[in-house]
Structures are given as C-alpha cells and as structure tokens.
Specification:
globular, mainly alpha
C-alpha cells in the first residue's frame, strides 16, 4: 500500500508508544479479573489499564492521531482495541473512562469514530459484547 499510495504514509511513526499490545493485554486482564471491582486482582488489573491509558493520553497531547496529522498503522491497531475496551469494560465490569479523564484519548476516539472509514466499517456494541461472551468473559455481580 505504501508503494501505491506513499502520501500520506500510513507506516508506523518513530517514537510512537508501543501501546497496541499493552492495551489489549491490560484490558483483557481487567475483563477477566477475579472477583468484583473491589477485589485485589481487579484493582491491580484496573491500575495496569489506567497506566497504559495514561501513557497513550500523554503521547496524544497536541496530536490528532498517533501518526500526527494523519492516521498510521498504529492507529489502525489501537482504535479498534480502544473501542472493544470502551464497550466491553462498561458491559462486563461496569467501568468506563469518566468525563474529563484521559481527555486526549477520548478526543482521539471521537475523532476516529467520526471518520467515514470508521462509520462505514464499524461493528455494533452488541457484536463486541457477543464476541467477548463467546470468549468466556463474565459480568461482575
């Protein structure tokens, strides 16, 4: 794709955080935490997720996307994971980013979801929930 359409580049951006893998691992860990939201395991895994979100939030300061003014490969990995996190953590753990929390991440998500490419390919929250249910994720009581 880069050969056929070199501008804008959608390659990775030097200095971008390695957040794609850590985001997936941290939110999956939180979804599958033992006990309710007050258990030690749940608190530890929530703290790890918050650490990853803080890192991404700091990186996004003053940027439209991880790639800067244009999306890059990392954006294409991170945004679907953030969407899954947003839907699944709310549904299964009763957790969501509060208004004013991780403002850069929330603005990034809003910008990305406003793109035609997202609107034309996005899947519903119900599909995300069904997918996590098929993977054995349970709602906290």
């Amino acid at each position: 794709m880069e050969t056929a359409f070199p501008e804008p580049s959608v390659g990775t951006v030097a200095g971008s955080p390695d957040v794609a893998g850590s985001l997936l691992g941290s939110f999956k860990g939180f979804l599958n935490a033992e006990g309710d939201g007050n258990s030690k395991d749940s608190k530890e895994k929530e703290a790890k997720l918050r650490e990853v979100l803080s890192e991404l939030d700091a990186f996004l300061e003053g940027k439209e996307y991880i790639g800067g003014d244009h999306v890059c490969q990392t954006d294409f990995l991170v945004m679907p994971r953030l969407y899954h996190m947003m839907v699944a953590c709310k549904e299964f753990r009763g957790w969501e980013m509060a208004a004013g929390e991780y403002e850069n991440v929330q603005a990034y998500m809003e910008r990305f979801m406003a793109r035609d490419s997202w609107k034309n390919t996005a899947y519903s929250p119900e599909l995300v929930i069904k997918g996590w249910e098929r993977h054995g994720v349970k709602r906290i009581s």
